[in-house]
Structures are given as C-alpha cells and as structure tokens.
C-alpha cells in the first residue's frame, strides 16, 4: 500500500508515535509519505528555530521532498503560517495539492490510505481532494483546548470525526468525544519499543557518561519540557529530598530557569532515542509529574511504558489515563493526588522492588509491536473490503443508476408540484397577506412617500401609483404636509412635479434626498419629524413593502406613530388564485429582507 501520514510534528522532533507508525508501516512492505507539521496555530517567537529548520529542509531537499529510508519519504512543505484563515487555507491547499500531484506521478504513488494527526481545515481539504480508499484521523491529544476560540476549532474537529472512515484515539477522554461523531472509533494509545528498553543483553551497568558522576539516588523524567510539566512539584520534591538527584531528559519548550538554579536538579537536554533506555535503566524512580487539567487528562504519556519496560517504579500525578492503566494492569504505578502524596510515593517505592516483573509484563502487553499488529489488521481489513466493493463495480454502478433515477423522479415531481402550488393556487396570497397593511387611513402630521431604493429586479412598483395615493390622502384632509424620500434624483424630480401639478403647494412638500434603502429612508425622515415635533405619519409605499417600512420605523422611533394605510378598499381580503413571477420575486425579497433586518437588529 501507499500511505500518506499528515503529521502534527516534524520528523526531526524527539521520537514519538508518529515515527513508530511510519517505520512499522514501511517495515510491513508499504511506502509512506510523511508530511511534516502544517500547524494548527499561527507561529510565535519560540517557533523561530523550527521555521528556520523547515526552510533549511526545503532547500536541502527536492522541492521539499526527501528520502529518509527505503520507502519512507519526508515532505517539508513551505506554506503560509495561518492555519485558521480560510483564505490562506485555500492558498496552502493549492500549494500542497500541486506538489503532491507532481510527486505522486513521479513515483507512481497511489495514495491508498491517509492517516492524519491533524484535524485542520487544510488536512480535511487535502483528504477530500485525494479521496483515498481509507481515511483515518489519529487523535493523539486534545490540541485545541488551550485556544481562545476552542469551540470553533472543536467544531472543525467534530466535522473531521464525522467525515473520515475511522478514528484512532489514545485516551478514554478522546474516545468518548469521538464516539459522539463517529461509529468507527478505536483505542490505540502509544506503545513501547519493548525490546529496545527491556534488552537483557545490554549490560545493566552501562551508564551514560554525563551521569556517571552521580552517586546519589536518581529520580528521573524523560520527555519534552513543556508547560504541562509541574515545575512547582519538582521544586518541592527537590527541596524535600536534598540527597536525591533529579534528572530531566528532553528538549526545552518552556522557561526552565527556576529548575536550572537548583543544585540537585540536572537538565540534560534532548537525547537520541536509542540512548534513552540507558538513562532510564540508571533511574531508581521514574516520574510523570504533569499538571492535571483538561489537556493532560486527554493524554496518554508515552514514557509510561518505557519506564515500566525497564521495571523501575513509577510515580505519577492522578491523570485519567494513568488511573485507567492501573485498573487494566494492576497497581504498577503509584498515583499521587497532591504534593505530599507524591513525596511519600517517591520515598516509599525507592526502597521497594517487589513489582518488577509485574511492571515489565504490563509494558510487554503494551508493546508497540502488539499495538501496531492491531492497527495494521484493521487497516488491511478495511482496504480489502473496499477492494471487494470495487471488484463488484457492476452491481454498485447499477444501484447508483437506480438511486439516481429515483432521485430524478422525486426532484421532477417536487419542482412540478412547487411550481403549480406557487403559480396556480392561493399560496402566494396567503404568504403575502402578513406583508400587507389593512389599517384604514387617519389624520396624521405628515404623509411620507417612499421612492424606489434600487434593489435588484425589485422596483417597489411605480412611484406614480404612490403619488396618486399621497394626493388622495392630501385632498381628503388626512394631512397638510408631504415628505418625499428617495435615493434617485430623477424620481424626486418627477414626484415633486406631479404633486405640484395636482395643486399641492411647494410649502407643503419636503424633499429628502440620498436614502439608498428602507433603513436609511426611515432614519432621515425621522430626523425631519423630530425637528418639527411631528408625532404621526402615513407611510406611502408598495403594499408588500408596508410591513418592513412600518417595523423599521417602530423599532427606531416607537414614540412617533407611523403606519402604511390601506387604500385598496379591502381588496387584499379577497382570495386570489395564482401569481405572477414578479409578485413571487417581490414577496421572496421582502421576507428575505425582513429576516436580514431582524438578524442585524434593524427590526424586532
């Protein structure tokens, strides 16, 4: 098989499950493309070294690609470091997709399986485009929990849970989350390279040169020094156990200056993974001193089984996965709920060695060989099932056509029925009735004529009709004042001329220019009314626009009573069959505008 691994780390990072999985896959006869971390957050100053290394890797490779081992290829993509931006995600997708397409053609790489450790938008787009036989999300931690927009990012991850063919998780907490979105979730925590750590052929007295001079009891920790490390706990232990040397092995990714000041704490930095077993065998007690929070409670510490494979005692804070481990494999780890319990645990077990074989057996059961055997079995089974489906393509194709015909019939019937209902029944009459005013005219301070606002293909009917309505109300004595509001100069000119032709004096006409929509018209007219201390208005507009105009007015200035009077003699109460396309468009437009105005808070 040809397998792509979308990694959440770079290949040069300290040895982790990503490396184990890649090596096991190529040792099983597969070809693997390992795509280095494309990120889930924007870079920070502390990432400068990693960025420089990525650029160096690009220039030392062939367009970002290099061969690490036989059948193992590393891709170090140069992309824009804004993984949460939709715009840059599209650009990065174009870069990655183009590079992968050329590289795949060059090596005849078929992309049978994609295993992604990243749930990012970029990963999801890439999987959707490649469309492998099998897609897997290997959820190795709750990586979004520390982000300020955690809910948005977890929603993206939930979509990924749903869209991939299967999900692998490393902890019980992650398993519960994934099972809410996927029916194919498997628990595969990290495993230990058991033979490397439990190799009895290696002389047990082989001690690394940089700790040969340590003659005291050694309490050790292996792993990256990050913010999950409880430095206060380590300082407490070092102060209480002055005769003990605490050795921390791993790259620094946080401020460790407080630890470096303590005489009996040694920070030895990053070591090659092949050297780690020699250090662990030198420990008298091993630690998992993590702070307990939502992030660490979703983590399965890789170092746990590495410690146990050597047989040394382990003391850990009460992480969820450590508790589960002890439930499954017995009391092989001392779990501490507070600093004093941790201290007692270290003091107690450094003198007790009765559970060595029990620890080793627990680690043996959690060896990476056992873990990978289960992983590979599931992958093989799923890929074979898809091969069977492909070989049965005739039946599948016929079924697709049958479904397609049924879908076309349903679609045709739905369109025909909808057309008949809208254009040949009273449906639109019922739908439009709430938009139309049935309130009779009454005396008011002013008559307001709303002109057309320039909406696409919606002219608000003709302004001539609205002028006739206004003149009718004026001549009937409902008001002595008329405001003309429109964003169209020619419309204002025509309305003004028509009013004067019908003997409305200039002193009774107020012109309001520049309003480009209903909301602006209402705002500008309300200012005029407030300046003149007018408290009521008759709104003259098209019958379907009446509801929106009235609601905007009421929301903005409820103290001024304004409404659109019914001037059709109650004709809108008469049942009407059928509708024109123009009426359908206007009614749809008005309901859409009402929804939009409600969402943005222009009406209530």
Word description of this protein:
The protein is built from 22 helices and 19 strands. Strand 7, helix 6 and strand 8 form a beta-alpha-beta unit. It is elongated, with a radius of gyration of 37 Å. The two termini are 60 Å apart. It has 604 residues and is α/β, with parallel strands linked by helices. The strands form three sheets. Strands 3-4-2-1-5-6-7-8 form an eight-stranded mixed sheet, with helices on both faces.
Count helical runs.
22
List unreliable stretches of 5+ residues: 453-461
Mean pLDDT: 86
- Total tally of structural domains: 4
Known CATH architecture of the largest domain: 3-Layer(aba) Sandwich
Major β-sheet, in short?
8 strands, mixed
Helix percent reads 40-55%
Strand order of the largest sheet: 3-4-2-1-5-6-7-8
Q: What general outline do the C-alpha atoms trace?
A: elongated
Radius of gyration: 37 Å
Structural class: alpha/beta
